[in-house]
Amino acid sequence: MDFLASVLLSLALSAALALLFVRFTRRGGLQRLLPPGSLGLPLIGETLQLIAAYKTENPEPFIDERVRRHGPVFTTHVFGEPTVFSADPETNRFILQNEGKLFEVSYPGSISNLLGRHSLLLMKGGLHKRMHSLTMSFNSTTIIRDHLLVDIDRLIRLNLRSWSGRVLLMEAAKKITFELTMKQLMSFDPGEWTESLRKEYLLVIEGFFTVPLPLFSATYRRAIRARTKVAEALGKMVRRRRREQEEGTVMNDMLGALLAGDDRFMDEEIVDFLVALLVAGYETTSTIMTLAVKFLTETPLALAQLKEEHETIGARKGPSEGLEWTDYKSMPFTQCVVNETLRIANIISGVFRRAMTDIPIKGYVIPKGWKVFASFRAVHLDPDHFKDARTFNPWRWQNNSGSTTSGNVYTPFGGGPRLCPGYELGRVILSVFLHRLVTRFSWVPAEEDKLVFFPTTRTQKRYPIILKQREDSAWQ
Ligand code: HEM
After folding, report:
1. Per-residue pLDDT tens over the stretch 280-297
2. Which of 36, 63, 210, 440 lies at a CB distance of 3.0 to 4.6 Å from 70, suitable for a disulfide?
3. pTM over 0.70
4. Looking at ligand 1, which atom is closest to the CA of residue 415?
5. Whose CA is nearest to atom 16 of ligand 1?
6. Neighbours of 357 (CB within 10 A)
């Protein structure tokens, strides 16, 4: 209810501005050059159709129908603004690569307010470039191999040890990813402090999909209060670590790197940066963990092949031995499963940008200030690029790039200057999780659960499963 009221209010508030804008472009003759499409109803455009489609298991018709009528680059009007949608890989690449030059990142007000203005996700220009590269370096293959892998494996095992009977997989996976991120960012092991921070943090995330007006949305008010508490707790931690670092205790984690750098960041900047990293890795990785299990459960042949791969790895290790990089590197079928889960789930279904100037594209013009949505999902599920595109088929990745066309049409982690810094980390976490899960447990779904895609990709019931420990499970 709260969400729907929020969406409608947001539409009403921004519609007047959008209409003025469209009128202006019509007068100026730009409409002739706009990508074809429909702006839908006055005020709400085609928002309700989009929401209705994405709340089902099969949101594809929303884009499919428009692509059929208008082609892969079309105009629509959603969430209060005229928006150009791209279902075309070349256009998507152009949008991603021209970040900061022709297009700039654009998040709804609720998300930017709750992230904080110094968040990496909102940064632009030179500072973004520097911070993006620092974040990449902290998630590099070398760091994962030499430092993070041990903690990933240890924390996943610690969590799985307490799993028995009925488990809400999505919730359990979220707990794991939060704990992993806290460890990576500030060397914290799970405990009371991290758990109480996680509870506040969940309230912050709930506020992302509301209208950022405290008077109208109780969820948003709660999220703002929780954001203040999270900032206070992290701020205290940053101050303590700054003191310790000045006294000579340097920790080898992301916070340590931020405190030690030449940039001399203020506490508030560091806190916003930490919040952004917690947000970016949390929902995405835990959702991919859940959906990989769901797709495997529904594809028994793939699950059997995956088990075999992990049993072979398990057989050469002692019961309490941790996974090593060479183990991760000997999981070729798991990597096919990871690729295919990312392709078919499309947790980030695409990215919103804003045109910084009038931009000619494919014979049309995207007017300055307009929203653009590069849909990764539309390309990943396009039968022109992937055979039987809407079927989960990990084997498609065995001998080639998965797609039937040349060129890079697979972008689950985006691309260009905002390429996801966690692209390798996410893959490693999922692979280690699958290893520990299939070698310790067998499971069945506790009840039927459906995938939906709005406001985020998730299963309706958080994917409840019933677990049974395998009799031959050796690890402790
Ligand atoms: C497997 C799950 C993941 C998926 C599917 C995913 C996907 C993406 C995508 C598509 C973007 C690009 C957004 C844009 O262009 O606006 C992105 C950005 C980002 N991701 Fe991930 N991500 C995942 C995991 C992670 C993890 C584990 C981290 C933790 C380090 C992370 C950190 C980030 C950050 C900080 C950004 C913002 C980069 C920027 O704006 O410069 N992600 N992610």
Report:
1. 999 899 999 999 999 999
2. 36
3. yes
4. 15
5. 351
6. 11
